[in-house]
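@here heads up, posting the sequence + SMILES for the fe (ii) ion run so it's all in one place. Ping me if the SMILES looks off, I pulled it from an old spreadsheet.
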Amino acid sequence: MEAGEVRFVDGIEEALSDDALIDQMRNHLLEGDVYIVKNFMPKDKILRIREYLCEIGRSSLPNYQTIEESCPNFHRIDRWDPRAHVRACVHSFSFFPWNHDVFGFFDLFRSVYQFKNRLSGLEPDSFLSTEPDRGCIARISFQYYPKGMGGLNKHQDPFDYHQITVPSMLMSKKGEDFQTGGLYVERYGEHLYLDELCDYGDVVYFNAKCNHGVEKIDPEEETDWLSGEGRWIALFAVNKLASNSRIADSKDLGA
Ligand SMILES: [Fe+2]
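bot reply: prediction finished. Complex structure tokens:
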């Protein structure tokens, strides 16, 4: 589906307790509208998290890990791997609620998930406990798209009993960290660049069925995976476990 209007919200905590607003937002999301929740996290905190992830990326081997109960946190590099459900060039760092971590990420981002769950018509704390819930679990995926190579094919994400939207928080800024490309949704057959409407720490919610992707980040530049230069986000996924066949995979719609 195509995206509709872009709407802005100030303050996730207030919105979380406003039942009428949640109903209205859910209806708008179902019609394709995009919501940008401003100022969820300050820039200095975001830069500390980026630095921590860069250290991990520089000093340990990236590896693939199947998503199953009690699996470890991990990081991996995908260089347009044809085995992926959606072709991408990205370094991702995954965290699960059953593992503790130094930042306490699931406490820090709990309200982002609660908002996602409420918009999806679910109990606020769904998928956030230390055990899988209905064959699914929350996964925070920090994603680094390096200058030069970084990008993600146009696709649609699973829209099912577990979610209607997959929010992400911007951890970089177009015009500062990179100049061209970034997250877009399709609207009127064109790319609407959401990164251009966002600042550090803003969280974007849109319908998982909207066609979207990450256009290549500064394709003229050299790629240096260790530099940390490029586009960073935090993605707030709810993933099916490998054993769950009820939910479809993301659908790749090409470059
Ligand atoms: Fe997506």
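MO: The first strand starts at residue 6 and ends at 10.
MO: One more: The chain has a mean pLDDT of 96.
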